[in-house]
Amino acid sequence: QATPSVITVQGLTKRYASGFEALKRIDLDIQRGEIFALLGPNGAGKTTLISIICGLVNASDGQVRVNGHDIVTDYRAAREQIGLVPQELTSDAFATVWNTVSFSRGLFGKRADSAHIERVLRSLSLWDKRRNKMITLSGGMKRRVLIAKALAHEPQILFLDEPTAGVDVELRRDMWDVVRSLRDQGVTVILTTHYIEEAEEMADRIGVINDGEIVLVEEKAALMRQLGRKQLRLDLQ
Ligand code: ATP
């Protein structure tokens, strides 16, 4: 039985002003409730793709629908369903954890809801840190706060751009646990990574992107059977 798509991408192309084609006619469906890993080397187009899906960057051609809402012509309705954790860990040093997360909810025009903020903070083991200033947090904790921030407006879909880039092994495992628990709470998760181990460890499905093209989309288990880790690693080099 087919799972409904929450995101549909059709013929997506991105040409930067230089004429460089960062994405070449991408087609992609993301299914409700899955963890989808977009796996590819540096410069493959991962950030460009998720920036367009989230409505932050305009495509040169093609279409993105989020639960049926066009990301360009129906931006508000589409955007409301998406949370994004960008690659860079930016935050206001003076803001507390609580402020950071609740402010983000306000940005979406959502009514303040301290019960929801509390739930999100607890689910990420941040409750005890709610009064801490962002500048005092470790990298791992800061990452958690940015996830909480992305979830503050109750999106159904969460994008994580390279959630474990530059993170040590222990913190990486910690992040994997966080992502799985989000999926268990019903959030659809799309993450980008250039670690095959990460895609293998976490994803239900994997899309391999290289040089602006999705070269393969497969159930993880099938992909691993077909290619084997060694082969896939070679492809990505
Ligand atoms: P990384 O893993 O390094 O983040 P990525 O897969 O996310 O890489 P993108 O950041 O999407 O890749 O970049 C894809 C390609 O588009 C790269 O060659 C990059 O240099 C180019 N690119 C990105 N942004 C711009 C821009 N604003 N203008 C011109 N080229 C750009």
Describe the secondary structure blueprint for this structure.
Layout: E1 5-15, E2 21-31, E3 35-39, H1 46-53, E4 61-66, E5 69-70, H2 75-79, E6 82-85, H3 97-107, H4 114-123, H5 139-151, E7 157-161, H6 169-184, E8 188-193, H7 196-202, E9 205-210, E10 213-219, H8 220-236
Parallel strand pairs: 3-8, 3-9, 6-7, 7-8
Antiparallel strand pairs: 1-2, 1-4, 4-5, 9-10
The structure holds adenosine-5'-triphosphate.
Structure description:
- This is ABC transporter ATP-binding protein.
- GO terms for molecular function: ATP binding.
- Keywords: ATP-binding, Nucleotide-binding, Transport.
- Residues 7-236 form the ABC transporter domain.
- The chain is an alpha/beta fold.
- The chain is 37% helix and 27% strand.
- It has helices spanning 46-53, 75-79, 97-107, 114-123, 139-151, 169-184, 196-202, 220-236; strands at 5-15, 21-31, 35-39, 61-66, 69-70, 82-85, 157-161, 188-193, 205-210, 213-219.
- Strands 6-7-8-3-9-10 form a six-stranded mixed beta sheet, with helices on both faces. It has a four-stranded antiparallel beta sheet with strand order 2-1-4-5.
- Strand 7, helix 6 (169-184) and strand 8 form a beta-alpha-beta unit.
- It binds adenosine-5'-triphosphate (ATP).
- Residues 16, 18, 20, 22, 40, 42-48, 194 line the site of adenosine-5'-triphosphate.
